[in-house]
Design goal:
- The protein contains one helix and eight strands, in the order E-E-E-E-E-E-E-E-H.
- By secondary structure, the chain is mostly beta strands.
- It has a four-stranded antiparallel sheet, covered by helices on one side.
- It is globular.
- The mean pLDDT is 79.
């Protein structure tokens, strides 16, 4: 559908790197690319490498046919003010899930 969904979440100020963990459903079309990015100024965004299962993802990620949830995690650098997921597709529910997990686990510190 050539749509892009962006979920941006503020990151609490921390003197040490923060660990972001989530569950990612792996089964997008090969044209649906998910990218995790960080910013320190709200203007300049850079890709944040993350672990998805045993794989390191460094940039847009798309795979088809696996149809399963996988654990994912990333180290959020000191000075980061926000994290965002950008999905070039139409899977808004996936982004909503990531956002709710992020807020509960990192921002509100609830498991």
């Amino acid at each position: 559908n050539a749509r892009t969904a962006i979920l941006t979440v503020p990151v609490p100020v921390s003197a040490r790197p923060l660990r972001l963990s989530w569950q990612q459903f792996v089964d997008t079309e090969t044209s649906d690319a998910l990218t995790l990015q960080v910013t320190g100024d709200g203007t300049t965004w850079t890709a944040l490498p993350y672990r998805l299962g045993t794989e390191t993802v460094d940039g847009p990620y798309a795979v088809s046919g696996l149809r399963r949830w996988q654990s994912a995690s990333a180290e959020v650098p000191v000075g980061t003010t926000a994290v965002r997921w950008t999905l070039a597709a139409m899977a808004l529910l996936v982004l909503a899930f990531f956002g709710s997990k992020f807020v509960l686990e990192l921002v509100l510190r609830r498991a």
